Amino acid sequence: MSQEISPLAWDSPEFYLQAHAVAATRLKFVEHKGKRILTINCVQTDFQLLKAIAAEVFHVVSSHQLKSVRTLIDVEGAEFNSESVSLASELAAKNRPYVLRGAVIGVKGMRYFAFQTVISFSKRPMKLFENRLEALDWLALDGEAK
Length: 146
Known about the structure:
It is a single chain. This protein has five helices and five strands, in the order αββαβαβαβα. The chain has helices spanning about 15-25, 45-60, 80-95, 110-120, 130-140; strands spanning about 25-30, 35-40, 70-75, 100-105, 125-130. It is globular. α3 runs parallel beside α4 (about 110-120). β3 (about 70-75), α3 (about 80-95) and β4 (about 100-105) form a beta-alpha-beta unit. By secondary structure, it is of the alpha/beta class. About 35% of the residues are buried. The protein has a five-stranded mixed β-sheet. The protein has a domain at about 20-30 and about 45-65 and about 80-100.
């Protein structure tokens, strides 16, 4: 992906073809307490890269069974504006059928309130955590989160 981001919608198949080359390395499955968790690295990303990561996340998550994916997203230092909040809300809503539970780390200050809005909008089990280990422990719990 160059400095110029494609004007295509982030969730279009055509955009995904461009996004994959840039964003694939930002996603990785890890094991924690016997559970497979998709980690998503959004640390220090601008909106263009966030858009590419969203496309990659949706592609990966939607290839799994319903209510089977556990996600951990680190957003520390990521670009924060109305566009990025809107993108996060759209992604959370689209991923709803596939995600069993999701955790977010790296949220500080006023961003906390914006992410509470994203969580509300997603209507799925998602929580904010202070650190990675707490988030991983919660994600590894059995059953559907309330």
